[in-house]
Request: fold
Amino acid sequence: MNKIWFPRYSRRQVIRGLLATAAFGVTAKLGTGCTASEGGAAAGGGEGMTVGFIYVGPKDDYGYNQAHAEGAAGMVAKHSTVKLVEEANVPETTAVAESMRSMIDIDGARMLFPTSFGYFDPHILKLAEEYPDVQFFHCGGLYQEGTHPKNVGSYYGYIDEAQYIAGIVAGMTSKTGKLGFIAAKPIPQVLRNINSFSLGARSINPVVTTQVVFTGNWAEPIKEAEATNSMVDQGIDVVTCHVDSPKVVMETAEKRGIFTSGYHANQASLSPNGYLTGAEWDWTNIYAKLVEDAQTGKTLADGSIPHLLRGGLKEGFCKLSDYGAAVSEATKQAAEAAKAKFMDGSMVIYAGEIKDNQGNVVVAAGESLKQQDPKLETMDYLVEGVIGSVGS
Reply:
């Protein structure tokens, strides 16, 4: 007897097919990590506005996705009439286009936050052209005037300020003078964190080195564990990272008895003995402000919402984790002194002369690259003191 094959469709795909023949409201739980609230195309603005968030990983990853999910929850807490639609574990493929389309067509979302780096080009850009009345906000993508659709916005934080301070803490705590940084991909945002962390450490101890290992992707737990163990074997005694979920790095380092510095969210519970501090996102204020603007009729298309939104410690885009028990009072004082300079605007991380780790001058003597300088958004080098290469 021949088996009859039936294609498998997601719940959203089935609903979209039904919507093609009949209009109706829907309130449902839609698959793992995906929640939809009642709403439709009419819920486009003002009271009851529907806002969609898409995450590349789980919302409880102790990292990138958790930080965004906490920001979304914080936004809803401030704006109780907002209807939140979320979907987790969406890869950086056409799957995210499917998710965005479903949130728009089924849930009536008119404001989307697809948060992962790879969602931007081509997926967000294509959907933005198809849905000009929907506002698309992407974390990290560099909006280009005249090239990208006017209903696309880019937001990101100068979290390298917190990384610089974390570097000071790491540099003052390390007994070997050897730090480690496990990173996903050598893109500008990642390189900026590596360099700022290293510059912070070397502002205290000019001979400190930072060994960097690129895993090649945002979530590579096996490679992350192997890199951490390898670093410990080389005498590195403080490790940090820029991957989607720092969980494996923190737990592996804790088991090996070395210090850790967190990223994205607070990982102190994963490394109770070795956690020094960390660079955390604080997305609640940003998301709440953008939603508030949209509720009052402001849009990206008319320029009343900026296409490039950036900020650091002072603006509340990021923060520093609480200090761990291993951090000395002298170290706390040095870190807080640096933080105060960021808060009053007097601190500039990239003030020349700065060389890359090949000996080339990348910031000339007398040159000062402040946070909003576009050169920092296209960083393609590792600074002196970092062991590794952009091509590795």
Confidence is low (pLDDT under 50) at residues 1-11, 13-45. The chain has ten helices and 19 strands. The CA atoms of residues 16 and 190 lie 38 Å apart. Residues 160-277+318-387 form a domain with the Rossmann fold fold (CATH 3.40.50.2300).
